[in-house]
Amino acid sequence: MASAVLFRLLNRAAARAAVPVKPLGRSSARAMSVGGIPTDEEQATGLERKTLQALKKGLDPYSILKPKEYAGTKEDPHIVPSIHNQRLVGCICEEDNSAVVWFWVHAGEAQRCPSCGAHYKLVPHELPH
Question: How far, in Å, CA of 57 to CA of 41, rounded?
């Protein structure tokens, strides 16, 4: 039994050694010498490409980046983007608070958190696709 296993292993090794190795094709060698490894922008397709192009223009179509911080006052309310005319918002009123105060923000004037008084304003947001 051991001799049969050894015979199979030697047979496979000999078969692999007999297969000629093909040199790299001319196109792949040329591509590496001309431009090197393609960048993310050159290689991206579909939705990823659209997202990268929008980020290059300074847009954030899928809210990937950290939102800007606002004071939360009536003059400078926290901006809440929404595709509807209302949105559920959670406010952590104090930095070390473990409870979240949930309330609805409606389109129109800025609204206050019922607990801490921070202002939130709903703004329309269009989906990019």
Answer: 13
